[in-house]
């Protein structure tokens, strides 16, 4: 097992997850969330989140090998100063693409229409997940997209036209109550399924962990050893989950 910590700071909220980088499709095996009201609180909360998750991992018999972090440079510097392992900063697009690339529900749909929120702004985009690229993105000014009958499909039509590719599924990464109806309507307009991958509320932190894990990924094992490695990793995750639950941490 390669335990990697992912931490994401977004709009005053800190989310943190522990991921086994050897079986990323399983998603987080532990997760926590904290609130922070201003810049100073956010920095302190991010440092505290790393300390708390490190302690949780240690109590389950795990050592965190690397930390992935989505945050402003000042927060990254503070976490680096406090951390005892390598900290890998990641931008939001990279974390989203890493998360989508490891979602088993999306394995057969490499080109996606995606709706996201960040800093109060809504964006629709078309992404090529295997290529790790955002083909086109549209962020209208002013009104929110969701809740306005014409704005959301019009913005997505523009993104699809710019991308020059047709999406194969629709994903709302920052799904809120009330989004499901407009999302299904948009999926119908696009003629694609609306998919909600598991662990989507933690997608930024999960993606940050996966971006960090790439920095020291082991070389592929030739032949059948790869399957044996995956089985061993799955067993390891189950053992850790039992340890976390037994210690009353989950």
Would you mind describing this structure in some detail?
This protein has seven helices and nine strands. The protein is an alpha/beta fold. The strands form two sheets. A five-stranded mixed β-sheet has the order 3-2-1-4-5. Strands 8-7-6-9 form a four-stranded mixed β-sheet, with helices on one face. Strand 2 and strand 3 form a beta hairpin. Helix 1 runs parallel beside helix 2 and helix 3 packs across helix 6. It is globular and about 50 Å long.
Brief description of this entry?
The protein has helices spanning 39-59, 73-82, 92-101, 151-163, 180-190, 203-213, 225-246, and strands at 3-10, 13-20, 28-35, 66-70, 87-89, 111-118, 121-128, 133-138, 169-172. With 250 residues, it is α/β, with parallel strands linked by helices.
Key features of this structure:
7 helices; 23% strand; globular; 250 residues; 5-stranded mixed sheet; Nucleotidyltransferase, domain 5; 4-stranded mixed sheet; alpha/beta
Strand content: 15-25%
CATH superfamily of the largest domain: ATPase, nucleotide binding domain
The CATH topology of the largest domain: Nucleotidyltransferase, domain 5
Q: How many helices? A: 7
The tally of strands reads: 9
Helix content bin: 25-40%
Strand order of the largest sheet: 3-2-1-4-5
Structural domains: how many: 2
The helix/strand series, from N terminus to C terminus, equals EEEHEHEHEEEHEHHH
What can be said about the biggest beta sheet? 5 strands, mixed
**Any guess at the CATH architecture of the largest domain?**
2-Layer Sandwich
Judged by helices, strands and strand pairing, the structural class is alpha/beta
> How many angstroms separate the termini?
19 Å
Return the CATH class of the largest domain: Alpha Beta
pLDDT averaged residue by residue: 87
Radius of gyration using CA atoms only: 19 Å
- Detail the poorly predicted runs: 224-235
- The best one-word shape is globular
